[in-house]
Amino acid sequence: MDLSVRGPRGSKGAFSLLEIMLTLGLLSIVFVIVFTVLIGGLQMQTRAESVEVASSIAREMLERIKTLPFSVSEGSYDGRVPNPPTALDFPPAPYPAVERGALYYVKVDVVARDERLWQVSVSVSTADRLMTSVESFLRR
Amino acid sequence: MKFLFRTRGVAGFALAYFLIISALIIMLTGSTLVLGREGLRTTRGGVDASRALYAAEAGMNLIIAELERDSNWTGSADDVAMPGGAASYSFEFVAIGATAGMDQSINNLSQDTSAPSYRGTDTVPPHSALLVVTGRSGLATRTVEALVVSGMNVREGEALIATGKVDMVGDVKIDGRKSLVNMETVPADFHTNIDFGEVQVRYRSADSGQQLEVTGNLTCSSPLPESDVFNINPPIDLTKLRSNKPAKWIPRPNIQAMVDDGIGSLSTPIPTTPGELRMSGQNYYDDDVTVQGDLVLEDGTVLLVDGNLTVNGSISGRGQVVVNGNTSFFGEARVAFYQDDYVSLLSKGHVVLRGFKGQEYMKALALSNPTLTRDTAYYAAYLDDPPAPINDLVNQFYPSSTTAEVAWQNLQTALGEIHGVVAVAAEAYPDPSELRVNLYEQDIRLDTLMAVVSSHRAGADNWSTGLEPSVSALFPPDGVTYNNAGMLAGYMEGQGGGPLSASRFLGERFRYLEDLFRIGDYRRDGAQVSGPMTADGGLPSLPVFLNYEDWDPRLDGGLFDAMQSQPNKPLEEFGVEPIETLTPPQEQAVLDIVQSVLQYDIDRLGSAHFKGVVYTSGAFVATGDVVVRGSVLVNGDPTVGPLELEDVSFESGEKSFLPGDVGLYGYTSLSYVEEFFDDGIHNLAGNGVLDIKRWTSR
């Protein structure tokens, strides 16, 4: 197998150092661009999956709070620095954190909007960033 | 494509390869990027959809809260942002009768008739509201729609739902019926959501012959097998017992908020002297309340108590009692007449209903079996009234004294027979006019039976002439006694018990039965109601029926007889004009009087009645012959704390009832009444609690 390449003047010979450097430089730029884009795409996919998981955790939490008959209690409950549970075990699981491929921290904020409504916000974060949050008014 | 592989001697093949491979890499990279972005966009769309849904639900709860404050509220919101700012909600009300769009709500809570909506005519039932709320987040839009009813949304077919353990002793009956007039049975279930532990539902008879009767199912959410969860002795049909059933949803009214609505409108103090207390409108008390006597709630009364409520007497009328503490009734919610009348009790703390142990009293009475005598002085005027031969008949055919056992037995037999006749007629003839005519056509039979229950000398005449031989067969030979309710009432009144004694309670109960079934044209004191005949040719008893709302059992004639004795065709021999058609108020009167007859459970004559809905977030204990007609909801709130009663404890000896627990002792009945919970019309009376009857779109 003859892998040689014809030279610029039609004669057989090696590439000059300059040609090789140029080629490697161009290839490096291409590879950097390609890998950057590739990694970005993969990161977006990973993030989408994480947000999906976080969103499902947030919904799960809010739905669970909705079904709690009496133990909803005003306050801010941050799963990264877990508050001691209330006497009635509020917030319920998956507070303070849940492992689903990664560790997701749950934060629950309950504010009395008035004498009839709780304003409840649930946010879900990984160790370094907020992934999603949902909020609603629940009847007290 | 061959040239691609024949590279030797071909100029530029490297470039071609480079371009092809580069294109492939770019395509792969690009597709990864596109897929990643699309995935993220889809996920964000899902997150937005969730946020929009929760914003719409927030708007829905906001409207319900406003409507609970003011049932006529009709506000609007146009993309009002949630506090976090990521979503918003919108809603708008239109006036009743106006053309409504798909995103417009209708408030029909204060109306007695159905209203139209975008779904069509009469699609919003009376005392309900159709709420439509739209939530938005990003590009996502979600709309929720629900029918909200006035009152709590009691699940159909549930006589009782609890969240704790259940303990029952004695004769306990759990059944269901179509309505107070229609005796057709419907399944009535009894469920507890408790989902752990053994022996969560226990029954034991205190005496031979006592049993647990359940027309529906007795279920529990505990995952353990039925044999571990239920301890029923003597056992009942095992197919009625089910464990591992899903938890059932129980309403959770905000009692604190409801009571707080009354702040600033403190009512005048409750009198401490015993006697009847009548209330109307809204009444608020910021401390414990004790009522020494009967409490009467006039139409739609709301009683708010920011403390404990104790009523040492009966409760009657129509209204809502909301208590932020414990509630204790010693008496009965006796709502004799009006079908729409019932009391809804919402208590944040425990509820204890105590009856009078009337059944126990009657059992003891039968054992001692004293002799009862007819109170001739009481009916002297009546019996001396011409025609005298009838008086002779009364004296001839009925002994002037008898034993308590015979009187009690005859009374129960006659009442049972009347009850049966009326129940069959009510089921066969839903139309009040036809129902009344049918009862009139059975007049002789009913009169004869009424002579056994009360003082009805026309019925006494029937005995002598043998007009109703089939009725005679119901009673032992020579054992028929006259006016047994009156005799029993006289005996009870002679016992001299205190105001909360069983003898006083039973005395009033028997006297009431005597009044109800007395001949229609005579008062209790023996005087005629209004002469021999009314000016327009009606029977003398007719005014009693026509003015039934003001009927005073002591001063007027027998109501039942007055209702059904008026002929529907001319009686020429008497010159009596018939009632051929009834006015709407008269139709309602027929139904009310019929239900007042049907409400008596012949086996439970000594029981105290509570008609309506009981909700508690503490424990529920009924003891001493209590009948609840409606539904009981026990949604235990752990913050309420335990309840300890001196005279009641679980079989295990444990004295503490925890929030959510249920104790039924003595002769207790729970009767689910389907009519109360039909489309929100008969949910809890009064303003205040609202509940979602059903989601129609989500």
Please give the structural blueprint.
The complex is a heterodimer of chains A (140) and B (698).
Chain A lengths: L16 H51 L7 E4 L18 E3 L3 E10 L4 E9 L4 E10 L1
Antiparallel strand pairs in A: 1-3, 2-3, 3-4, 4-5
Chain B lengths: L1 H4 L7 H57 L6 E6 L6 E7 L10 E4 L6 E3 L2 E5 L3 E10 L2 E11 L7 E5 L3 E4 L2 E6 L11 E4 L8 E4 L7 E3 L3 E3 L5 H4 E4 L7 E2 L12 H6 L16 E3 L2 E4 L3 E3 L3 E11 L3 E3 L3 E9 L3 E4 L12 E5 L3 E4 L3 H11 L2 E3 L6 H5 L3 H10 L3 E3 H25 L3 H10 L1 H11 L3 H9 L3 H4 L11 H10 L8 H16 L24 H5 L12 H6 L19 H15 L9 E9 L3 E4 L2 E9 L8 E2 L11 E2 L4 E4 L2 E6 L16 E8 L1
Parallel strand pairs in B: 2-3, 8-11, 8-30, 9-12, 9-33, 10-13, 10-34, 11-14, 12-15, 14-16, 17-20, 18-20, 19-21, 20-22, 21-23, 22-24, 23-25, 24-28, 25-29, 28-30, 29-33, 30-34
Antiparallel strand pairs in B: 1-2, 2-6, 3-6, 4-5, 6-7, 7-35, 26-27, 31-32
Helix pairs in contact in B: 7-11, 8-9, 8-10, 8-13, 9-17, 10-11, 13-14
